[in-house]
Amino acid sequence: MPYIQMNCKNCGAPLERQGDIFVCSHCGTRVLRILDAKIEAGQDIVSREEFEAAAQEQKLTEDLGDGLRRFDVGSALLNAQLKQASIFLHDGKPYAAEETLEGVPDTIFAAERLRLLAQAGAKDEQSLSCWAGDLRSLEHFERTMALADFEQKRVYEHLAAVCAENKKIADEIAQGNKMLKSEAYEDAERYAAVMIGFYPAKSLAWELLIAARCGKDENYDPAHDLGFFLRCPDFEMTYGRPLSGVLPQNVSPIIRDRVRETERKKQKSAAFWKKAVFSVITLAGLAVLALVWAVLEKLLS
To answer: What is the pTM of this model?
Structure first.
């Protein structure tokens, strides 16, 4: 029966076969599984070199298997982090997204992309296209570009150009704020109208117009213009996600004050008319009762 003659690599003592394993009788620390070595006819002994090569091959295979299992677990965790970070971004929580990505290697494009979006406060590339600023100056832009493929590089180069153009437009619209500060409301309104003509989808232009009209006319109700303001595609990127019935805090104070005052007047008017209608109905009911009573009294008499 063929056998394998080997010495322990730790202490040099001969290995002894015990069932399906070889054990060092001297130190007891060397335990190897028997390899399915191919033995040619008439060959009774496998050489030390062949055995070590086969053992190393088996060891590498086992390590690779363990590594793959560890990688699978790591991949599941990584995918969970990326998915959760994406959810946070869509919920308008960029800081939570950044915290979720802690520990994720910066060699992964998907992670660096999400970090870039979080840094700009964008939920995806579409909303990032509404950001106004120097995208190339952001910490994670260069790293994202380094990991991107050719098509992805083209997309982010285009986004960088769009964001830079948004910044120029924002600065141009902001010139009207000087007129607001000096209370030149009519001039500010005219300037805002021109800006809306050039940039009808820019929320900053609508904010300037509404603020100027609030200053110009104390009876102005901004509800109609607010409809356009809130529907601008860059509104959420510029001001944040509005709560139900409440404008974000960074909207011009004169607009928020007018909205609250207008709402208060509407509620007061609604309460007045509700009370008036109730009074009319009550009086009408009393009149009907009086009429019925008079008819009944006449019939009984």
So the answer is: 0.63
